[in-house]
């Protein structure tokens, strides 16, 4: 089941960092010492009340940063259990304008055709696609994408440019939605802008697969499942 995702947008990433402020509570003072009693037995002044210590300020979470690497694995967790678990490689539109990852792999739509690395701060979403079934009709890596629900977790693993690996966590924004393949492209800046872009720079990932319950033409579903998730760690 090939995925029709012909897009004319071009995502770009940018880094925005801000310092995290940490508050300091008030320093409690000792009571003032009592004055010595005088010959006239003047009462000593009452002790000065000690001010209550202020509660420690809650540290501001450190801002998320771009990851200098490329996605190599995606996992979708539902109630802690893996719903999707697949290796990822970079793909491009083929000659017919389709995104068609290899069977058994998810595909990251990356440079030079689409510049946003999933998880990076950008006006445009990162895009990862996967087949629902293989050509022989067996389940493929995104078979269960239509079961994803708001609040589920997505974990991306990256191969770092300097060596080693890192992960980023995302939270699914809404239940998986079935959308017409033609419309999601033709109306990419209007009715289906939410699939591709954010109103302000953000760290959003869009996952695509075919909706097998939709009508088929020449063996291909006319609709895609789409899941959007926002990076949280």
Gist?
The chain has helices spanning 181-186, 193-196, and strands at residues 69-78, 81-91, 106-109, 122-124, 126-129, 153-160, 165-172, 177-180, 197-202, 204-210, 216-217, 220-221, 223-231.
Write the layout of secondary structure elements.
Elements: E1 69-78, E2 81-91, E3 106-109, E4 122-124, E5 126-129, E6 153-160, E7 165-172, E8 177-180, H1 181-186, H2 193-196, E9 197-202, E10 204-210, E11 216-217, E12 220-221, E13 223-231
Parallel strand pairs: 2-3, 5-10
Antiparallel strand pairs: 1-2, 1-6, 3-5, 4-9, 6-7, 7-13, 8-13, 10-13, 11-12
Determine the fraction of residues in helical runs and give it as a percent range: under 10%
What would CATH call the class of the domain at 69-231?
Answer: Mainly Beta
Largest sheet: 8 strands, mixed, barrel
Question: What is the number of helices?
Answer: 2
Q: Which strand order spans the largest sheet, edge to edge or round the barrel? A: 1-2-3-5-10-13-7-6
- Helices and strands: which structural class? mainly beta
CATH homologous group name of the domain at 69-231 = Sortase
Strand content: 25-35%
Give me the Rg, rounded. 27 Å
Which fold name fills CATH's third level, the topology of the domain at 69-231?
Answer: Sortase, Chain: A
Low-confidence stretches: 1-42
Query: How do the helices and strands follow one another from N- to C-terminus?
Result: EEEEEEEEHHEEEEE
Question: Could you tell me the mean pLDDT?
Answer: 81
Cα(first) to Cα(last) distance is: 32 Å
Number of extended strands: 13
Overall spatial form: globular
């Amino acid at each position: 089941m090939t995925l029709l995702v012909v897009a004319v947008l071009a995502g770009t990433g940018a880094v925005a960092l801000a310092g995290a402020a940490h508050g300091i509570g008030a320093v409690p003072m000792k009571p003032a010492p009592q004055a010595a009693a005088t010959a006239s037995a003047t009462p000593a002044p009452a002790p000065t009340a000690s001010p209550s210590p202020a509660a420690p300020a809650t540290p501001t979470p450190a801002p998320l940063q771009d990851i200098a690497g490329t996605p190599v694995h995606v996992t979708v967790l539902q109630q802690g259990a893996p719903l999707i678990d697949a290796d990822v490689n970079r793909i491009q539109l083929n000659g017919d304008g389709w995104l068609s990852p290899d069977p058994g792999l998810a595909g990251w739509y990356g440079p030079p055709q689409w510049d946003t690395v999933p998880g990076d701060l950008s006006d445009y979403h990162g895009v990862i696609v996967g087949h629902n079934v293989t050509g022989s009709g067996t389940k493929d890596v995104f078979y269960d994408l239509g079961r994803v629900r708001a609040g589920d977790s997505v974990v991306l693993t990256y191969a770092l440019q300097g060596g080693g690996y890192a992960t980023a966590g995302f939270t699914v924004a809404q239940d998986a939605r079935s959308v017409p393949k033609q419309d999601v492209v033709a109306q990419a800046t209007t009715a289906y802008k939410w699939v591709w872009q954010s109103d302000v720079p953000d760290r959003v990932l869009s996952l695509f697969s075919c909706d097998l319950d939709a009508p088929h033409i020449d063996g291909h579903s006319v609709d895609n499942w789409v899941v959007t998730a926002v990076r949280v760690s």
